[in-house]
């Protein structure tokens, strides 16, 4: 009996000794504390689902009072630990009022980092939300899935929108007029460079990424000299390279000042500065505009010396790896104003838009080729999508832009999101939007719509998350176990399909389907008016 007790005690002692040894061995994947030191003070986040989240961290001073329509200024330090478990206010948006949770004090960002990570600094995805430079916020872009799956850090940001971010008037400020939102993005990138190491990130491996207006922003950052060296890779999702000239931006600003009940003269700018947020938003309907008439960055100024489109075409951009692409039916939903168009009205609208080239366009896109229901919408969705007349987004001009960039940068990768029926989260009306603008977003950044993905679509989501994560880590989307994704220089693009069907195809397939030989042979401009205005000019009923 005593021998048995002694044996048990000896075993227990041995076990305790082994546990002591194990506890003494430093773990390379130990959870980090949720209190992190930034250059302005301590922040305390929260952990959930194997991801540490730090929300609502100020990266610049509130742009209020005398700082309205000024470049972002440094944030003030805070003396005690700042809670970082709730996002900061969203920037004013939507064209009327401020809405709940909105404030001009909105320059905040959020950090997602794996809870269990090695001591080695992790690559960083810096995400810029879309919304036409008029809506959106960083807190709606959940970076947890990408962070957890790929062992990378994700940063999402707010930036000033609409009239607060993109108003240009002479004398408004000494620097940045027309580009306050762009300067906010650059300020957030500088915050990331200074602080991301404390969150486990690598300041020298930051990939700037964005969709829609966020994609436009990425192209502008590629062309912005002050942003050089702040990122090492770029992802443009369904975004082009549009901008306004100073003359165009100022004309828009003068029109806005009048709508707000103020003079555009520099001596009367105090009138605008004295207006409450709600009044400035209420006057911004025309400034916010529509699909092709809203805010854009202003070129011809120090932070954007040449238009981003020209910068790409002439090689005057940051030379970093690029992942770029769009959805298959990018603009189809925006063609809805033509749902009730007759054949004559459709052809009239084509003639209004394309002038002398209209007969050739109609020969390639005849009304009769698009069925009996929503014919005009499907027809315009096809020809607009192929011709890239929405800011050069999608289609043949988009491919040409990619080809120009790839001449300098061998690590350029092109994709088309081709799921024919992505979930929308909205009731069906009979109109088939297809793979419309932003339909790929629930596959990458979790949202309520993500819960509607079928098993085949969930598989595609998993593939895309890994492709994007691999690009963030290596400047190349290739990932073990997934279909090979060659660079654009190999004459290929990636067709992203559900059910494990994603595959690289020859660019000739893309060019044939989108009739690029035709579009590259004629001269035409981007769509000059919003779709509803063009439909009205053609007499299309909107009942």
> What is the 3D shape?
globular
Q: What count of structural domains?
A: 2
Count of DSSP E strands?
A: 14
* Percent helix range: 25-40%
CATH topology of the largest domain: Rossmann fold
N-to-C CA distance = 94 Å
Which value, in Å, is the CA radius of gyration? 26 Å
CATH superfamily of the largest domain: Alpha/Beta hydrolase fold, catalytic domain
The main pleated sheet reads as: 11 strands, mixed
Q: What is the CATH domain class of the largest domain?
A: Alpha Beta
Low-confidence stretches: 1-30
Number of helices: 19
Organism: Streptomyces citrinus
Protein name: Carboxylesterase family protein
Entry summary:
This protein is of the alpha/beta class. Helix content is 34%, strand content 14%. The chain has 2 domains: 35-320, 3-Layer(aba) Sandwich (Rossmann fold); 328-537, Alpha/Beta hydrolase fold, catalytic domain (Rossmann fold, 3-Layer(aba) Sandwich).
Structure report:
- This is Carboxylesterase family protein.
- With 543 residues, the chain is α/β, with parallel strands linked by helices.
- The chain has two domains: 35-320, 3-Layer(aba) Sandwich (Rossmann fold); 328-537, Alpha/Beta hydrolase fold, catalytic domain (Rossmann fold).
- It is 34% helix and 14% strand.
- It contains 19 helices and 14 strands.
- The chain has helices at 2-24, 144-150, 162-166, 180-195, 213-223, 246-259, 269-274, 277-282, 285-288, 308-314, 343-354, 358-364, 375-387, 395-408, 441-444, 455-474, 507-513, 516-519, 531-537, and strands spanning 35-38, 41-44, 46-48, 51-58, 82-83, 108-114, 122-128, 153-157, 201-211, 233-237, 322-327, 412-417, 492-496, 503-506.
- The strands form two sheets. The protein has an eleven-stranded mixed β-sheet with strand order 3-4-6-8-7-9-10-11-12-13-14, with helices on both faces. The chain has a three-stranded mixed β-sheet with strand order 1-2-5, with no helix packed on it.
- A hairpin with a 6-residue loop joins strand 13 and strand 14.
- Helix 2 (144-150) packs across helix 16 (455-474) and helix 5 packs across helix 10.
- Mean pLDDT is 92; it is low at 1-30.
């Amino acid at each position: 009996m005593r021998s048995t007790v002694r044996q048990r005690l000896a075993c227990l002692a041995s076990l305790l000794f082994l546990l002591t040894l194990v506890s003494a061995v430093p773990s390379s994947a130990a959870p980090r504390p949720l209190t992190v030191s930034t250059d302005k003070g301590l922040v305390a986040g929260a952990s959930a689902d194997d991801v540490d989240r730090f929300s609502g961290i100020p990266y610049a001073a509130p742009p209020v009072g005398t700082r309205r329509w000024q470049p972002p200024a440094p944030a003030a330090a805070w003396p005690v630990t700042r809670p970082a478990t709730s996002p900061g206010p969203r920037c004013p948006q939507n064209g009327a009022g401020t809405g709940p949770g909105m404030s001009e004090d909105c320059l905040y960002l959020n950090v997602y980092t794996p809870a269990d990570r090695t001591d080695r600094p992790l690559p960083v995805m810096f995400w810029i939300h879309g919304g036409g430079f008029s809506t959106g916020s960083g807190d709606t872009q959940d970076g947890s899935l990408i962070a957890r799956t790929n062992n990378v850090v994700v940063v999402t940001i707010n930036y000033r929108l609409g009239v607060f971010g993109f108003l240009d008037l002479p004398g408004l400020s000494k620097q940045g007029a027309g580009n306050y939102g762009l300067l906010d993005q650059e300020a957030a990138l500088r915050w990331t460079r200074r602080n991301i190491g404390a969150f486990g990130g690598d300041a020298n491996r930051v990939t700037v990424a964005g969709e829609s207006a966020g994609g436009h922003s990425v192209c502008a950052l590629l062309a912005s000299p002050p942003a050089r060296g702040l990122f090492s890779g770029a992802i443009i999702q369904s975004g082009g390279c549009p901008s306004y000239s100073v003359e165009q931006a100022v004309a828009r600003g003068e029109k806005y000042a009048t709508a707000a009940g103020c003079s555009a003269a520099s001596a009367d700018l105090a009138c605008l500065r004295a207006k409450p947020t709600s009044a400035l938003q209420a006057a911004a309907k025309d400034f916010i505009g529509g699909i092709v008439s809203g805010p854009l960055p202003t070129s011809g100024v120090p932070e954007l010396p040449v238009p981003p489109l020209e910068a790409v075409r002439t090689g005057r951009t940051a030379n970093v790896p690029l992942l770029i692409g769009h959805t298959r039916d990018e603009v189809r939903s925006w063609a809805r104003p033509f749902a009730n168009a007759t054949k004559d009205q459709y052809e009239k609208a084509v003639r209004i838009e394309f002038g002398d080239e209209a007969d050739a366009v109609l020969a390639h896109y005849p009304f009769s080729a698009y069925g009996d229901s929503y014919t005009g919408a499907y027809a315009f969705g096809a020809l607009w999508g192929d011709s890239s007349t929405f800011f050069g987004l999608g289609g043949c001009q988009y491919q040409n832009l990619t080809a120009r960039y790839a001449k300098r940068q061998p690590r350029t990768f092109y994709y088309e999101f081709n799921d024919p029926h992505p979930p929308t989260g909205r009731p069906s009306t009979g109109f088939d939007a297809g793979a419309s603008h932003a339909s790929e977003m629930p596959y990458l950044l979790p949202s309520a719509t993500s819960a509607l993905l079928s098993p085949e679509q969930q598989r595609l989501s998993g593939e895309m998350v890994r492709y994007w994560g691999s690009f963030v880590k290596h400047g190349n989307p290739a990932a073990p176990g997934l279909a090979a994704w060659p660079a654009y220089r190999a004459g290929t693009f990636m067709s992203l399909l559900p059910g494990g069907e994603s595959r690289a195809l020859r660019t000739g397939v893309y060019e044939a389907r989108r009739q690029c030989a035709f579009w590259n042979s004629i001269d035409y401009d981007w769509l000059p008016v919003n779709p509803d205005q063009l439909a009205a000019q053609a007499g299309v009923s909107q009942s």
